[in-house]
């Protein structure tokens, strides 16, 4: 759902089709790495590889589990529900230093816990559990502790969500989405008024399971999980409620996971 990564990957696939003897010889992972480098080095966004990877490797009817360190990935089936993307039409701005500031907090915490434990295996917050973070919380500033808490619990939610998908536990996944949004709002600090209002407006609409802000936050859209067969009515009611609360129009898109970027040659 990352618009920049989707455009990068679609453009790369187009170039690979137009220039088969050069760009076309690149493997999928090479193209994904190049697209990420464009975001990091040209745009100046210190993002990871998740958006480009899923824009390139997506599979219809599935969600992707990705280990960003090893690039190991697998698919989990997605059925019985649909997604509704709800655009708040609030400005979506990440390259103003705020995203990179949050990122720096996370690396500072990983370094602090590595120093306190003496463990050379700790390089990122993925190496830190909730218990370990709590054990060393008194060595961190309030901002560091809260930013790190979001990342650590988000990692744990990913593993729980994969298990829930395999078990067909849609209600459980919906609750994880809600918990994720609250964590973004209260701990990571990358939500905004419009995103919070959109998430609140979704509560109580028939078929609604859970929602969280999408992507890097600071504006943009929420991702809503809705039981199959209810998505269109849900989207209409959500847009009505949001406009009544904010005076802003909400654009909605109903979708299910699809295939990653590809090129098609015209006849």
TrEMBL record:
Keyword tRNA-binding found: no
Organismal lineage: Eukaryota, Sar, Alveolata, Dinophyceae, Prorocentrales
Domain GHMP kinase C-terminal intervals: 161-242
Record InterPro entries: GHMP_kinase_C_dom (IPR013750), GHMP_kinase_C_sf (IPR036554), GHMP_kinase_N_dom (IPR006204), Mevalonate/galactokinase (IPR006206), Ribosomal_Su5_D2-typ_SF (IPR020568), Ribsml_uS5_D2-typ_fold_subgr (IPR014721)
One Pfam family cited in the UniProt record for this chain: GHMP_kinases_N
PANTHER family in the record: GALACTOKINASE-RELATED, MEVALONATE KINASE/GALACTOKINASE
Name of the protein in its database record: Galactokinase
Domain GHMP kinase N-terminal residues, every copy: 1-58
Similarity field: Belongs to the GHMP kinase family. GalK subfamily.
Domain of life the protein comes from: Eukaryota
Species the sequence originates in: Prorocentrum cordatum
Assigned keywords, A-Z: ATP-binding, Nucleotide-binding
């Amino acid at each position: 759902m990352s618009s920049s990564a989707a455009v990068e990957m679609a453009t790369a696939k187009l170039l690979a089709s137009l220039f088969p003897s050069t760009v076309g010889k690149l493997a999928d992972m090479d193209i994904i790495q190049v697209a990420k480098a464009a975001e990091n080095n040209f745009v100046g966004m210190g993002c990871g590889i998740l958006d480009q990877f899923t824009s390139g490797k997506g599979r219809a009817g599935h969600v992707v589990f990705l280990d960003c360190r090893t690039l190991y990935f697998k698919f989990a089936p997605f059925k019985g529900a649909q997604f509704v993307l709800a655009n708040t039409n609030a400005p979506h701005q990440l390259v103003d230093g705020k995203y990179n500031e949050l990122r720096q907090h996370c690396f500072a915490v990983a370094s602090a816990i590595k120093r306190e434990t003496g463990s050379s295996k700790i390089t990122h917050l993925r190496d830190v559990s909730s218990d370990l973070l709590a054990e060393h919380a008194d060595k961190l500033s309030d901002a560091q502790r809260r930013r790190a808490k979001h990342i650590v619990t988000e990692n744990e939610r990913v593993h729980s969500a994969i298990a829930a998908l395999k078990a067909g536990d849609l209600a459980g996944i919906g609750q994880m989405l809600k918990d994720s949004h609250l964590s973004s709002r209260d701990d990571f600090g990358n939500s905004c008024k419009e995103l919070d209002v959109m998430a609140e407006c979704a509560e109580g609409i028939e078929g609604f399971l859970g929602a969280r802000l999408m992507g890097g936050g600071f504006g943009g859209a929420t991702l809503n999980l809705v039981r199959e067969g209810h998505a269109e009515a849900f989207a209409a009611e959500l847009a009505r409620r949001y406009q009544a609360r904010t005076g802003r129009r909400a654009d909605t898109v109903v979708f299910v996971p699809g295939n990653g970027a590809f090129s098609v040659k015209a006849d």
